[in-house]
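FAQ: What does the model actually see?

It sees only this:
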Amino acid sequence: MKRFLSFIAGLLIIAAVSFAGAGRASADLPLVVDRAGIFSEDEIASLTDRVGSMVDTYGHGYVLLTDIKNDGKSKDLYAADFLYDNGYWNESNDGATVFYLSLEEGNRGWRTISIGANEDIFTEDVCYYIDELVDSNMRSGNYYQAFSDQVDYVEELFRTGRATPIEGGSRVTVSDKIGQYLPTGIIVGLVIGFVVVAGMKKGMRLNPETAAANYLLRDSFNLRGSREYFLYRNVTRTEKPRDRDRGGSSFGGGSSSSGGHYSGGGRDF
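And it is asked to produce this:
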């Protein structure tokens, strides 16, 4: 009986370990690949623990990458090839994403590139919010903080399933805004309404006439004929473009060198 219980316990342990590792293509693959050498050992360990916990908890493939060369490829294609060529995506995790920082001379920038099911998570809005969040630290060379903030945002994205707007480096939800501004708006509206109504009441102190005809001026209006004049015969309308490029963000997709599809966005600096 004891042997049978030990056997069952062993199976449960194996199943638990397999389930915990199902979120990544292989438990042996590094989750922080710092080819540019910009992070300390402690920073790599911290980012690895946080990304590993996120991947194991939510089951989405994810990896951080830095490099100083792109092998003649665009940053988008280089990042996508990295996912496909190194086994970060397979049928067990359904999708994978790499947050890539290129420090190639004359070609610096960052990209958020996704493949598989992760493309439905990392939409244009999500990539734009990531760009807004990390922009200041990336441009100032505070790379670890930029990566750290990005990991925090992605963890919240996986946990809530909601792309939360970024304002001033902190996440602000619509409900937060309503709770913050609604009471003040109501008070201001009541004050303005009271002042306007009071002014209207003062202007209504009139001495009414007994006959309605006394309010009209005799022969003051004669309508003998009318014509309509138009300055232009044709009216055209042009849709105003959205101001999504103010920070240099881009979003698109393509095929990797092996033919696999990818999508994502980012900025150059």
